Amino acid sequence: VGFLPSTFLQDEKDEEPDPPDWTVVCAAVAGGLFPNIAQVEKSVPRTQSQQSSSPGDRNKWMRYSIMQRHLSGTSTITYPKACNMHPNSLCFGQDRFQCPWLAFYTVQQTTKLYLYDATEVSPWALLLFGSQPVKNEVSQKLEVAGWMKFHCARQD
């Protein structure tokens, strides 16, 4: 009929869509889930024989902590609380993270305190979408929510 050029379908096949920018997606997730942020640290196995390739064994060497919040009268008390990644979570058994911060949707107490629905988030996302950063002049660190600390050395 002539409404479209004859090369229309060929051009459509040749164009590949741009891959999604997952950094932006994770930043939006961090902003939406804040203050549900967990810190993750890896402890090192003492011997080579303690290392394993199974997700359960790899997860043994990961340490997760969240800031527990309690409202009491007119004040809020916060303190760090150890937790675990739930075995059904996609992050269970992951032992390599680019940065030590995870945003999570749910934390639930069953036999242990478990994190569900977690994803890695960048420090920049926490600085931009978290609570107001406070600069500690002595340690030269920015603190977000009183416990997330980011080193920012002064450059002259």
TrEMBL record:
Chain coiled-coil ranges: none
One Pfam family cited in the UniProt record for this chain: OB_NTP_bind
Region of interest called Disordered, as start-end residue ranges on this chain: 1-20
Residue intervals of the DEAD-box helicase OB fold domain: 25-132
Domain of life where this protein originates: Eukaryota
Listed InterPro entries: DEAD-box_helicase_OB_fold
Protein name: DEAD-box helicase OB fold domain-containing protein
Source organism: Alexandrium andersonii
